[in-house]
Amino acid sequence: MSSFRDAVLAVAWLTAAGLATAQSNKFPGVGREATPKEVAKWDIDVRPDFKGLPAGSGSVAKGQDVWEAKCAHCHGVFGESNEVFSPLIGGTTAEDIKTGRVANLQRADYPGRTTLMKVPTVSTLWDYINRAMPWTNPKTLTTEEVYAVTAFMLNLANIVPDNYVLSDKNMAEVQARMPNRHGMTTAHAMWPGQEFGGARRVDTSNRICMKDCKAEPKVASLLPDYARNAHGNLQEQSRTVGPQRGVDTTQPEPKAGQPLSAASAAPVAAAKPEKNESKAAIALLNKYSCTACHGVDKKVVGPGFHEIAKKQAGKVAYLTEKIKLGGVGVYGPIPMPAQSLPDSDAKLIAEWISKGASK
Amino acid sequence: MKEISMHSGRVQKAPENFLTPSGVKQVFAEGKKGRRDFIRHAFAAAAAGAAAPMAMAQGNPVPTEGGDPNILNLPEHATGLGQGVAADGYGKPSKYEANLQRRQSPGLTQTTQASVSFAPLQSLFGIVTPSGLHFERHHQGWWDIDPSKHRFMINGMVKKNMVFTMDEIMRLPSVSRFHFIECGANTATEWGNVAVPTVQYTHGMISCSEFTGVPLITLLEMAGADLKNGKFVLAEGGDGSSMTRTIPMGLITSGEVIVAYGQNGEMLRPENGYPLRLVVPGVQGVSWIKYLRRIEVGDKPYAAKDEAIHYIDLMPNGLQRQYTNIQEVKSVVTTPSGGQVLLDKGFYNITGLAWSGRGKIKRVDVSTDGGRNWRPARLETPVLSKALSRFNLDWVWDGKPAIIQSRAQDDTGHVQPTYQQLRAVRGTRSIYHNNAIQSWLVQENGEVKNVQLS
Q1: Looking at the 3D structure of chain A, how many domains does it have?
Q2: Which of B195, B243, B438, B441 is 20 to 30 A off residue B52, Cα-Cα?
Q3: Whole-complex ipTM
Q4: Do B222 and A33 touch (CB under 8 A)?
């Protein structure tokens, strides 16, 4: 770079800096300086170079306790569960830890991608848990608990030993053992700008051809007949007026020449009448995130409300207590944690379930 | 709903047994009340259909009685008094439009709080998505946040860490711009094969709105950001998931990135980030941080959870592409499209949407023979940068099988790829950024199906 260009750039930068000062005068009375306390409370992100990582530590053993109390009901005892979210642990090998590339990611026949297979940076794991976990109560873990849970997950993936204590001092050591640390690339054209180097050419170069073009000749994939109604009746998902209707997928497809039922006026799906008490209970289910683990008519992590209603019809006091204290063993091995909500709300939900949990 | 099937704009030619059970019930109920002509016309219409056993509705012929009862018998709304003003302080769509809903794709997710709902593209016009039908993507549920308590912070490589209230942000000079937002995973289910039936589920994770807000660069300048050394900007949400993403500096300094509070003339909807969200034109939706609470200027990228665990594109060699941001040139025909049935042979307006995260749409071509021959479609105005564009093309359907495709080109010259071309580079496991040409098979019976060719 010539010294002339340097000088020009320096002037440009001074001008920009000067502008910035001028700008702040441009909008008097708008915005104020943030206090150090405010910045500290919100500035929680942790970068791959560990900028932002708070001092502290947590052991694998402590992590296991936290995991079983706060994480296992969604992610499974070993982080292997596929019930609610994709599995966290599995698919990585000792060889991957050496090479820094997860070999299973190259196999098209490998059935899934766990978090530990994908993640290249241990900072990301720490930051994810710290900002967004547990799923229904994010940002409630202590710094020690975040270190501990991270350590426990790394232990499940055989990256650190059973007696490991993870801390801000040894995170870099762990980074050097992350199974997919060399598994990423920024050699693509899909970041605007050159900050990552990137490729300048896009991946594909289709051309505009208008006549007698080379086309893919045959239909290679379409939905099987048994999936015809898998997304609900499509007739009820389209406007009832216009050049076309939605197809009535509750009926098998007619042969050519037979009338299509959608050619008759498509009905608008009738709105289901809502009962007031159900509405109040369902609002509470959402408020207290009950629906994160319980569906109304299907099992998610815990049993569906209909299933509970069948088993515990009329038992308002029992259900109220179960909601407040939690429990395990009645519907399976995954424990329900105790819930903190006012007695009156717990009772309202219990009454709704005891009467059949109707929508 | 019974009255709806009787109020269709078209004279129904269906045989009697095509009256829905509720329709039949209404016919008899009305009959008891003495409205005999109602019965007579309803069944006359049905009987007229019996003479024509073929499937399709037949245009708009004069019924046997010498006229359409919808014309001959003046309806209640022509002979009575309508409803008063402000009957509904916030108006809603007609009850006849109740089928247009954003919908979940069954089995895609186990919870509703970490899930998506798809916009009903098959029934939308123009380029603006009604705010209530805007697609949703939540990672840990949505909130309706009190704007008087919402704060926006700028920190990092700035002269002065700053805090703004909503009042203050809304006092600043604003811009209003139309932009599409598309989830990086839009059309993800179709990488390997056809998996869903309609355009709502194949392409419905896209919406387009007019957004109003303050260019982020204005706020960064107020804080005295070091734009020379601060090459990377982190945006962070204020909700439970506190989404974070590294935002491209080039789009910020160009003035395109907006700290937005307005959407289609009103405030953002809660599901879309009320009261404040980032608008990052051309970039996948996950970067458009909702409930925006903080912007940090830094000198290195952040490898956030949605940049190092999710929203990474697996390539055939096992490497994952990181920081893939741009939604590349793409288009889809929304009518005719999968799950629809055309009522008859004859004239149709093929219509659809095209967009590019790199700029404006330059042209769209449409094929009705599976890509052998193409005709240029009409691009309707406005054609805006990084916004949806609407295209139309006249088409007379001869009743024979047809395969409809659209192919867009943006103003950088990039042409939308075929599945073959895209898979040759990216394989079938990359989840994100599927912008391949979509095919719809129109069958002889009028039913339209989602298909892929090879």
Answers
A1: 2
A2: B441
A3: 0.86
A4: no
